[in-house]
Amino acid sequence: MCTITDPSQLPYKYHQRGDLIVGAMVSQFGCLFDDTSFNEHPKTKLIEGIISAPKNYQHVLSLVYAVKEINENPKILPNVSLGFHIYDSFLTAKITHQNILKLLSTQEKFVPNFKCDKHQHLIAVIGGLDSEVSLHMATQLGIYKIPQQIFHQIAYCASFPVRNVKLHLPSFYRMVPNEAHQYRGIVHLLQHFQWIWVRILASKDDNGERFVQTMTKMLSEHRICIAFITRIPVLSQLTEMVERIESINLANPYVSRILSPISSEVKVIVVNANGQTTTGLKWMIYFYTLLEDAAVATIGKVWIMTARWDFSALSKERDFDIQPFHGTLSFAIHSNEVPGFSEFLRFLHPKSQHGDDFIRIFWEQAFDCLFSESDGIKESSDTCTGQERLENLPGTLFEMSMTGQSYSIYNAVLAVAHTFQKMSLFRPRCRAMRDKPNPQPLILLSIQLHPFLRSISFNNSAGDTVSFDKEGELAGGFDLINWVTFPNQSFSRVKTGMMDPWSCPGKEFTINQEAITWHSTFNQVQPIAVCNDHCNPGYSRKKKEGKPFCCYDCDPCPGGKISNQKDMDDCLKCPEGQFPNKNHDKCLPKNLNFLSLKEPLGIILSVLASFFILTTALVLGIFIKNQNTPIVKANNRDLTYSLLVSLLLCFLCSLLFIGKPQEVTCYLRQTSFGLVFSVAVSSILAKTITVVLAFMATKPGSKMRKWVGKKLANSIIFVCSLIQAIICAVWLCTAPPFPDLDMDSLTEEIVVECNEGSITMFYCVLGYLGFLATVSFTVAFLARKLPDSFNEAKFITFSMLLFSSVWLSFLPSYLSTKGKSMVAVEIFSILASSAGLLGCIFFPKCYIIILRPELNSKDRTENTDCSASCCRQHGGQKQRDTETQEKTSTDKSFV
């Protein structure tokens, strides 16, 4: 709080008369006092007791230039001059209230509740730059319904708890966009650069707490972690550190805690850049450079500042190093270059501005000099000549281009002028008054101004459209500024983007990343702000226990899943028909997997099947050619032909399993295999039973003779095959096989297969074949020692043993393989079992027929029969045995 003995003698005001008056309450001075007692004139005391921010003087000049531009433009308020009264609030309630009363009376002396100057009418008030000052102004201006245009967001504060600004303060018009747009811009900026590990700096007051609460919620919603939240200490605490600067060091916990934002490893810091935060941050950097070795005291951070940030130094801080803020990114109220403003500043002279009590103070503080007639006490012995050039001042003290806040003041004055013009055009009485020699504004003009001010929309000289939204806030956006500093304490503002809430959805935030200059410590490489290293594609994030969600471990993606971006929370399953590559960061299309005739395995199995087909056909031809020989007749020619034909079909049906499955082949594969094998095994069973019955029929008085013959054999084949045919028919009618694509069995391939439809029916077919094979094996095993030169029981026993072994090993192999391997296993089982039957039963006979024809004779058959008769236990009479043998000779031809 500034201590001022006689505020009535304050000289800091600037008057320009006119028919209409715009009042302004600026904050030219920020106060910092020591304990010195003053006995001088109050004016001297005030000048010595403050440290001024010269850069704020541009706010005054922007208002003056706006009034000048309006009065020189005949299209705006013709025949009406616009004037202004400017007062400094000194950031105190007492002086603010006093100066508001002066504005309301529009005279040097004021009488409360009386209008003392009927020739000049106050139509609007502009200012101030501080929320508390604005609220102090509102307590008085709200009574008179005078429009008040401010340049900040009104927030909750201890002295004036305003929640709904538009409801409680209807006269407020904010020349800044809604701060929510700025917060969303910060989130967009962090998301654009993938900065998810940030720190927040805010002032230790109500406004800072509100900023922390708002940003914490928004950042959490967008999965951005806050590493730390630091409240900037009040100025008194920093002053205390200055007093103890010789005894403190970074090992001191108190000092370490205060300077942690500078010394921490967090690279991105979001700063609520109000006055206290900015001042505190400067002193923190100053202390840090004092405590650290100059060689290692480089502060490489990415500062993200809110819209009130500016390189504005106090008069005693002109040598403050701004290099730590090189590369800073800040949001700023959208502004544009105002034509003529720079020229207006170049012609500014401290002795040419009549009525301006600010300029001399500004001139002395900005150029660190003293006018000869000044009563102040300055440390500098330089004398102000008035010929100093403003463009030579460093940007921290003054800028020739209009800053964002000055641009808002400029637009505020234009808004008042355009509103009054719009109002006068819509009121006949106003138009009539313009024709009078001395037009006078209407009584209660400021009250009538509100409806027109709310709906005002115009283009200023810089080409921007100025209007208010329904909440009384500027309908605009924020510029993203990159601050580039130079060793000579100068800097450059580079516009690198914009947050425009009025753009199309999805295009509100734009940024030109190539135009950004980063701090030198980053070597012009985009900084990284993460808790730990990124998880590369092929990995997913796994949360660390006890750490924020931005801190995680990286786990590789499991089989069948990928992650194609960094820092994915979970791996994604590849679409159907695709599989992950080796690095699990991309899905590749699967190849079709089926046993093709074009691949080596398919060719080998096809050639093997063809070989067995030809072999079987050759054996069949041999038997047909030698059909009248004893060995062929002794083994029942019809059963032999039936078995050979069925084996030939078995070899042929194996070819159905090769090639891409089609609907027809899927129908025929398993059913034809089951039927043909049933015929083959049934034929073997019939041959075995016939052998057994033939020998049983040779016994004297045996009743088995009536069962011996072709009829029984054909019946066995028919009945056994019919049962299998019924099973296959039921299968095809209920759940037939069909072509199918198996996406999941193989990782990198799509299995093109014949879905069995009903797996139960498939195993019924195999089970029935197993049953026939078991019966055939059992009967053949029991008949293996029956005496006969051409007895096949031994060969049938061995062949059925081989057959059963093949299909017993087939089941586990079939169930443990997928795709073409499973088909190959079944083909191999068909070929192996069929070849076993062919080889074990027919090759010995072919050997006799082709290579040992002398054994293929009737005599050998008769000798064998005689020898068998002699071995019988009923032998007493050889003649009777001979007769019996002759009677059964015909029957034995079926064996």
Global mean pLDDT? 78
Number of strands: 27
| CATH architectural designation of the largest domain | Up-down Bundle
The radius of gyration computed from the alpha-carbon positions, rounded to a whole number of angstroms, is: 53 Å
Question: How much beta, percentage-wise?
Answer: 5-15%
Main sheet summary: 8 strands, mixed
What is the CATH topology classification name of the largest domain? Rhopdopsin 7-helix transmembrane proteins
- Helix residue percentage: 40-55%
Order of adjacent strands in the largest pleated sheet: 10-9-11-12-13-16-17-18
Number of helices: 27
What is the CATH domain class of the largest domain?
A: Mainly Alpha
Task: State the separation between the terminal residues, measured CA to CA.
Answer: 129 Å
CATH superfamily of the largest domain: Rhodopsin 7-helix transmembrane proteins
Task: Describe this protein's structure.
β26 and β27 form a beta hairpin. The strands form 8 sheets. An 8-stranded mixed β-sheet has the order 10-9-11-12-13-16-17-18, sandwiched between helices. α20 (637-653) runs antiparallel to α21 (663-697), α21 runs antiparallel to α22 and α22 packs antiparallel against α23 (759-782). The protein is of the alpha/beta class and 895 residues long. It has 4 domains: 7-176 and 403-436 and 443-467, Rossmann fold; 179-306 and 311-334 and 476-522, Rossmann fold (3-Layer(aba) Sandwich); 539-589, no CATH class; 600-857, Rhodopsin 7-helix transmembrane proteins (Rhopdopsin 7-helix transmembrane proteins). Helix content is 43%, strand content 14%.
